[in-house]
User: Which sequence fits this backbone?
């Protein structure tokens, strides 16, 4: 949900990406956290090159050519730097303010201050009530958020371009007029402490990634404290501490304003002068960290433990120079060679060939004063952490001993360059790229010159930096295993936060009125069917230079037999792991050598194979795309390899309270029917899958008449239809017996209260769940608006009551979950264990209020705008268009629904919402699922719900409708 992620110390989260616990809305900036970057392109060479012999040695294509970003720069008398990029591709504009202050600037004994202050910046000013940025963004169809890293704090908004002046006024207002008062301080401190519990304590590797790596990798520099800080330091902070921090760092001469998108330059300059020009430059000095991290002189090793660690993990760090070092680009390329993608050295060696690691990655974590080169290894089940560490170090030794081959070097550079291109598809992405260059690297022109710097990295450069930095004396090794928490002796005491009441408020000035809007339009899909039944859909978006292609197949998890949960997901995952003529490493090497990615996955109602490509290389990319879909090998060794990987993933994800709550909710609501099981399977079902059922599932479901090809982006319909004909027209229908139809979605009796008692849970996950409408229901738009009011977005009722007013959670939300045959509505939050009963009561109360009270127009209009804006932004990229169309075809909906949705949303009325909620979202029919430490909440819960069923976590059985092992 928007800004339930506010305060995440870095986009994506460097330790959570593997387990997929959603971890937080990621904002990825090229060059910052390479492992977290997910944008990539897919280019494949032509069929005559894709032979088993030549696939690994074929040269990569010429390095990508990327047009420079044209930007304007000016500096106000106050010292504020203003950068802008004019782009009229869509009627939106991105506004960002980068403050050069981060976790390293926290005062002594006040770790987490920069992060806490990021939260406070969304509270009241002299002219705005608390949370007013949501009124000015969400309520008009925009979005806003912020993040704190070690060196910067960034506030960012995307809004319809007619609201640019309004947002400039608002950003200037909070820079100059923030209300740093006790109420704002206390309320946001409570939220940050819940974020700590959710991000650090509740997740299997949260302590390691957020605390222990930095604590043990630095000895003198304040980087050692970690951005998120500690609850003890936050509790000891005072209001005066906060005020001093604000005065020191939140000032125009420590800020950079970036505007990108649809605007008139002359008007922009006038507005900036009007609102920011009146802010004076302070006379006081900006305090800067002067501590220098000493060079390491010998290897250091640390053994750390924490509860809830399913597989041992190892972090190996090497101290790096400041990010502005001349070695930076070579280090970035080195990180890709070692640890990015299926074909990276560590993945191929540790995960694929030796199978001693469940996950292995590497990246250069660049920072202002001193960075870290991080190797992260999650040991495979039953394997030795020491052996995995030894294998990782062996890969570093190889890199030091021999220069990388030209093709491998080109692959790494193209991966990084394609990410640059992908990030520039939107105004927001362009703004982030410019901000990183200007603030983190000190020169906005590096947004362009860094491309040439990457292209200039040589094999000798890679070998040189490997020899220079990957030395035993520069190494720190941190082992993390299951056990009692030891590191640092931090206090994580759980205490109630005071509820807040609306503040008395009289603004000194009001925001300027918006200009006239530009209309938002979406391209219309064009469709054709091949003679063999393959549907081909094209949705052009010219001028981007990018194309997304996906094949959607009616082979989703709903078709899993109840005794074979995970079959659809397992089958889809195998598609890219070898074909009749190419092995999995060959496919990965070929695709990634061109800077790209090829993926396959299964959802509830459909599976897909997805491709992202430069439009100029699409003709080369499609042969391998077609091959993995049409001719998978399902080799026995790949089945066993994937089985081991899936079991390790489950070992991690099933330790998460949030994951367990979601999976238990599906069983409680849908029992043994198609939507009741775990789509990723369980340890028992994954162990039992065999090649015969995988092949039968594929042959029965993966057929041309079950397939739709969707092309989105910079491609003409004629070209797309020609490609489809060339690669798919000879795909023949197999005369195989169809698999049984999925068990109809038969909701179970509601009103249950199920507690999964997990004594080591750092937080309680609370979920209310019940069946609701299917996607094709005529009331779908009404349901989406009803859910938007209730729990979609930072300004929704659930988040207002649970996070904003009471500080009980980092974020509360709800989802309609409409699928082809039914829907699973859920409302959820993670909270302190002792607060679980209170959160249940609040969730139920809001469901009841929605069903019994009409929504006021003052609330309904902005929630519609928020839904509309989210939808429009999702379709801004070609990949978003393709994803939206696949979701329609999965549910057998007409393609016209793509453009019909927003008008339907605008027609929804308050009486319709109330009737819908009474019928489809009633609290009395909802079941309650809580996963947490029952010792802290069961006595109070049973007072409110005497019939609560308690299941010890080790007795939870997700293989059946009654999830209890006797």
Assistant:
């Amino acid at each position: 949900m928007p800004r339930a992620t506010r305060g995440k110390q870095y986009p994506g989260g460097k330790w959570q990406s593997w387990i997929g616990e959603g971890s937080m809305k990621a904002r990825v900036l090229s060059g910052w956290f390479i492992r977290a970057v997910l944008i990539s392109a897919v280019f494949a060479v032509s069929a005559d090159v894709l032979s088993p012999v030549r696939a690994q040695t074929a040269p990569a294509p010429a390095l990508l050519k990327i047009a420079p970003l044209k930007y304007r720069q000016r500096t106000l008398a106050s010292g504020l730097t203003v950068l802008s990029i004019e782009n009229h591709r869509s009627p939106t504009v991105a506004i960002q303010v980068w403050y050069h202050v981060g976790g390293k600037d926290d005062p002594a004994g006040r770790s987490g201050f920069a992060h806490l202050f990021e939260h406070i910046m969304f509270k009241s000013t002299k002219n705005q009530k608390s949370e007013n940025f949501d009124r000015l963004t969400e309520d008009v169809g925009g979005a806003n958020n912020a993040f704190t890293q070690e060196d910067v704090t960034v506030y960012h908004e995307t809004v319809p371009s007619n609201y640019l002046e309004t947002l400039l006024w608002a950003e200037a207002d909070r820079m100059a007029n923030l209300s740093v008062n006790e109420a704002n301080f206390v309320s946001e401190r409570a939220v940050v402490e819940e974020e700590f519990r959710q991000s650090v304590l509740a997740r299997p590797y949260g302590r390691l990634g957020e605390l222990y790596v930095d604590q043990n990798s630095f000895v003198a520099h304040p980087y050692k404290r970690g951005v998120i800080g500690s609850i003890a330091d936050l509790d000891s902070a005072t209001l005066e501490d906060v005020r001093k921090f604000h005065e020191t760092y939140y000032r125009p001469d420590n800020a950079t304003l970036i505007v990108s998108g649809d605007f008139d330059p002359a008007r922009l300059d006038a507005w900036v002068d009007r609102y920011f020009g009146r802010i004076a430059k302070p006379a006081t000095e900006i305090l800067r960290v002067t501590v220098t991290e000493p060079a390491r002189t010998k290897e250091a090793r640390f053994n750390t433990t924490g509860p809830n660690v399913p597989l041992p993990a190892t972090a190996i760090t090497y101290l790096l120079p400041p990010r502005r070092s001349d070695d930076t680009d070579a280090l970035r390329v080195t990180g890709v060679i070692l640890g990015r993608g299926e074909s990276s050295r560590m993945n191929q060696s540790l995960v694929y060939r030796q199978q001693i690691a469940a996950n292995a990655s590497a990246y250069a974590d660049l920072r202002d004063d001193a960075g870290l080169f991080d190797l992260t290894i999650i040991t495979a089940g039953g394997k030795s952490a020491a052996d995995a560490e030894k294998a990782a170090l062996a890969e570093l030794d190889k890199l030091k001993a021999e220069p990388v081959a030209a093709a491998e070097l080109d692959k790494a550079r193209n991966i990084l360059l394609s990410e640059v291109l992908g990030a520039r598809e939107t105004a927001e992405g362009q703004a982030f790229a410019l901000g990183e260059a200007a603030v983190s690297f000190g020169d906005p022109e590096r947004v362009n010159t860094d491309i040439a710097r990457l292209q200039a990295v040589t094999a000798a450069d890679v070998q040189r930096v490997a020899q220079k930095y990957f030395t035993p004396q520069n190494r720190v090794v941190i082992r993390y295993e299951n056990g009692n928490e030891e590191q640092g002796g931090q206090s994580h005491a759980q205490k109630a936060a005071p509820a807040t009441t609306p503040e008395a408020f009289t603004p000194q000035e009001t925001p300027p009125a918006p200009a006239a809007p530009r209309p938002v339009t979406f391209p219309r899909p064009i469709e054709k069917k091949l003679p063999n039944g393959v549907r081909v859909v094209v949705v052009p978006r010219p001028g981007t230079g990018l194309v997304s292609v996906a094949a959607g197949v009616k082979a989703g998890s709903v078709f899993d037999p109840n005794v074979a949960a995970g079959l659809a997901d397992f089958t889809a995952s195998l598609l890219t792991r070898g074909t009749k003529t190419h092995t999995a490493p060959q496919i990965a090497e070929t695709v990634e050598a061109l800077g790209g990615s090829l993926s396959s996955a299964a959802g509830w109602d459909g599976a897909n194979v997805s491709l992202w490509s430069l439009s100029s290389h699409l003709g080369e990319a499609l042969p391998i795309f077609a091959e993995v879909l049409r001719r998978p090998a399902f080799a026995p060794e790949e089945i066993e390899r994937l089985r081991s990987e899936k079991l390790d993933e489950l070992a991690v994800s099933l330790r998460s309270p949030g994951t367990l709550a979601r999976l238990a909710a599906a069983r409680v609501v849908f029992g043994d029917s198609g939507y009741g099981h775990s789509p990723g399977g369980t340890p028992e079902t994954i162990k039992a899958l065999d090649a015969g059922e995988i092949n039968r599932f594929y042959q029965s479901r993966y057929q041309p008449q079950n397939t739709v090809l969707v092309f989105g982006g910079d491609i003409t319909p004629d070209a797309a239809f020609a490609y489809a004909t060339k690669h798919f027209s000879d795909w023949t229908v197999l005369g195989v017996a169809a698999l049984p139809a999925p068990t109809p979605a038969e909701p179970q009796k509601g009103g249950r209260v199920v507690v999964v008692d997990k004594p080591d849970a750092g937080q309680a996950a609370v979920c209310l769940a019940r069946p609701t409408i299917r996607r094709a229901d005529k009331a779908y738009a009404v349901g989406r608006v009803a859910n938007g009011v209730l729990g979609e977005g930072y300004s929704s009722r659930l988040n207002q009551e649970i996070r904003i007013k009471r500080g009980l959670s980092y974020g509360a939300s709800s989802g309609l979950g409409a699928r082809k045959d039914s829907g699973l509505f859920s409302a959820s939050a993670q909270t302190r264990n002792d607060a679980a009963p209170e959160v249940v009561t609040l969730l139920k109360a809001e469901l009841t209020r929605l069903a019994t009270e009409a929504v006021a127009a003052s609330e309904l209009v902005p929630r519609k705008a928020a839904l509309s804006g989210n939808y429009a932004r999702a379709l801004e990229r070609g990949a978003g268009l393709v994803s939206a169309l696949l979701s329609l075809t999965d549910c057998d909906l007409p393609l016209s629904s793509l453009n019909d949705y927003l008008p339907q949303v605008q027609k929804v009325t308050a009486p319709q919402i109330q009737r819908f909620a009474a019928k489809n979202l009633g609290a009395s029919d909802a079941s309650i699922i809580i996963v947490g430490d029952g010792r802290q909440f069961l006595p109070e819960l049973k007072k409110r719900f005497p019939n609560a069923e308690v299941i010890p976590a080790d007795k939870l059985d997700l293989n059946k409708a009654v999830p209890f092992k006797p």
Notes: The chain has four domains: 72-290, 295-482, 526-728, 753-955. Confidence is low (pLDDT under 50) at residues 1-60, 487-492. The domain at 526-728 is CATH 3.30.830.10 (Cytochrome Bc1 Complex; Chain A, domain 1). The first strand starts at residue 72 and ends at 75.
